[in-house]
Amino acid sequence: MPEAYDAKGQVYDGWETRRRRGPGGTLPDDTARDWVIVRLGVPGVVRSIEVDTAFFTGNYPQACSADASSASGYPTPEELTAEAHRWQEIVPRALLTGDARHAFKVNSGRRFTHIRLNIFPDGGVARLHVHGEVVPDPAMLEGLSVDLAALENGADIAARSDQFYSSPRNVISPGLSRVMGEGWETRRRRRPGYEWLVVRLAGRGVVRLAEIDTSWYRGNQPDFASLQTLDGDPAGGSLADESAWRDLLPRVRLLPDTLHRFRVDG
Predict the structure, then answer these.
(1) Which of 17-26, 113-122, 195-204, 232-241 has the least mean pLDDT?
(2) Same domain for 159 and 211?
(3) Within 10 Å of residue 236's Cβ, how many Cβ atoms?
C-alpha cells in the first residue's frame, strides 16, 4: 500500500527485521540470524508450532528454527539471554516460503515457559502460534482455592452440543467477557431438548462454588441451567453414560447480563 509507509519503510502487521549485512557490506554467513523470545501465555507441553509469513512475499526469512526453555518466576530479558540460561531445540532449522503457513510438530514432552524463534538471516514473520497443553505449576495451586474449569489452569472442553456462533472454549478462557462474541452462543433450538457443554477439569477436586455468567446476553440468555459432575475416564465412554453423572447444581433460573454465583456441596 503506497500510503502505508513510515520512516522505516512499509508498515506490516507482523515482525520484520532490518536487512543483515556482513563486514564490508557482504551477505551474512549461514549462521547469521535474528531472534525473538516469547513468554508463553501459560506454561505447558508444546505439541506444534506454526510460523506464518502471510503477506511477506519478497522479504520473508529463508529458514527458521525454535528453541524452548523452562524458567521459574519472571526472568528478565538479560537473564533469558545469558550464556548460562539453557535452551532446548524443539524445531530444527527448516526452510520457509513467502505468504504461507508452516506447521512443525514438536515431540518433546517437557513443560516450557518460553519459546525462542530464530529466523535466518532476517526477514518478516506475520504470526507465531504455539499450540499445546496447559500445565500449571503445582506449587502455585497447593493450599489455594482455584478455578478448576479455567483454561489457564489446565481445563479444556471435552464435548459440546453446538458451537454455531462461537467457540465453547470462550466460557473457560481468561478474563471477563468484553462483548457478546466472547461467550458461547448456540443457534436457536427448534427441537426438543437442550444444549450442553462438558468441561474436563484441570484436576480432580472438591467443588464449592459455581459461577454462570450471562454478561452481554440480553434477550438471548438461557432461561435455565444445571450442573452435573462425573468422576471417571472419558476415554472409557462414560461421557455418554447418563447414569454416571451426579447432580451438582439443580436447575436454576438465569437472568440476562448477570454473573450468577452458587454455593454447592461438592
Answers:
(1) 232-241
(2) yes
(3) 9
Residue recorded with cell 515431540? 107
Q: Which residues lie across from 138 on neighbouring strands?
A: none
The total number of residues shown for the chain amounts to 266
Q: How many CB atoms lie within 10 A of CB 228?
A: 14
**Whether 67 and 149 share a structural domain:** no
What are the CB-based long-range contacts (under 8 Å, 24+) for 170-176? 171/197, 172/199, 174/150, 176/213, 176/215
Same domain for 91 and 169, yes or no, is: no
So what's the pLDDT on residue 225?
97
Q: Are 187 and 221 in contact (CB under 8 A)?
A: no
For residue 184, the one-letter residue type is W
pTM listed for this prediction: 0.83
CA distance readout (Å), 185 to 3, 9, 28, 198: 40, 43, 52, 15
Paired residues of 88 in beta bridges: 68
CB 145 within 8 A of CB 208: yes
Q: How many helices (H) and strands (E) does the chain have?
A: 2, 16
Give residue 207's domain range: 138-263
CATH of the domain at 247: 2.60.120.260
93 and 64 both lie in a single domain: yes
Q: Cell digits for 94?
A: 527448516
Give percent above pLDDT 70 in the chain. 98
Judgement on whether residues 121 and 171 belong to the same structural domain of the protein: no
| H or E element at residue 58 | none
**Total number of domains constituting the chain:** 2
